[in-house]
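Hey, can you fold this one?
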Amino acid sequence: MARKFLVNKAERTKIYPKVGIFSPSGGGKTYTALRLATGMIEEMEKLTGKKYKIWLANNEGSRGKYYANEFDYEIIELAPPHEPEMYYDLIEYAEATESCGILIIDSLSKEWAGTGGCLDIANGIGGTFQNAWKNVSPRHRRLMDKMVDSNLTIIATMRGEDQYVMETDDKGKSKPVKLGLGAKQGKDFEYEFTCTFSLEQKTNCAESFKDNTHLFENKPAMKLTEQDGINLMIWANESDIEPEKVVTENKSEEATNKEDLKTIIAEVNILATEKAKVNRDLVVETIKKHHKTGNPNGIKDISVAKAVLEELTNLEVK
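Sure. Predicted structure:
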């Protein structure tokens, strides 16, 4: 039987922009994100008459507070492990509050390449490449879908994939210059955003990589300012129609437990590998307290896996 499809007239709805910003270190990612967010909040308050907050979810150490004397924002400190589920829960938490107007994730690269992030989880699972990513890819995809579908404006910074080239300065001397080629994130990350910008390290000027708004098309590289944030929110609110909320399917408890077990075992493997470099015997004995073979990959009980993870986390190796 042929499939049937529902055909409706397309109507523009209100949009909750997703902005991606990447650059080499020193490119001005956090500062640029705060400038955009400040303009966005200003326009949101004009449009709605409500007061909103900028939330900066920070995993870059003390750098998250560098600009607290220049911008008004709340900060959330994110600690390892940087599994996709932490960032998924962060977005859900921000959505559930009435005060958060803009969520800045600084940086989303940690979810991919940070301690306990996707690459670490895949390496910790072991076995074939296909087997590892069969477990990790759906978890990363779930986070990306959550971000894209969220009725929350999100700005995500990402570290650039740095590469150095030699350039000659005005005195004729050669020196290395850092370039940002893409970002430390999953393949085709730029498609997840309404706008994606690459910042040049020396000038902090932004080049548009992707732009669904047409606000930045065919423009030379420039510094992004509060006015760009205002313009983005004006564009996003050209319609008063709220988009339909995407409901995430609840997984069965059994399926959730299986995923949690794989996550915990991956984290155990990462910790065990690191601490075994100092005292392998102590690490093995610690695991054997809860699992007789000493091989965490054989653990089938989630409570055992949690006990091993907790003990390894607190284990001091000398």
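The domain at 18-236 is CATH 3.40.50.300 (Rossmann fold). Let me know if you want another pass with a different chain boundary.
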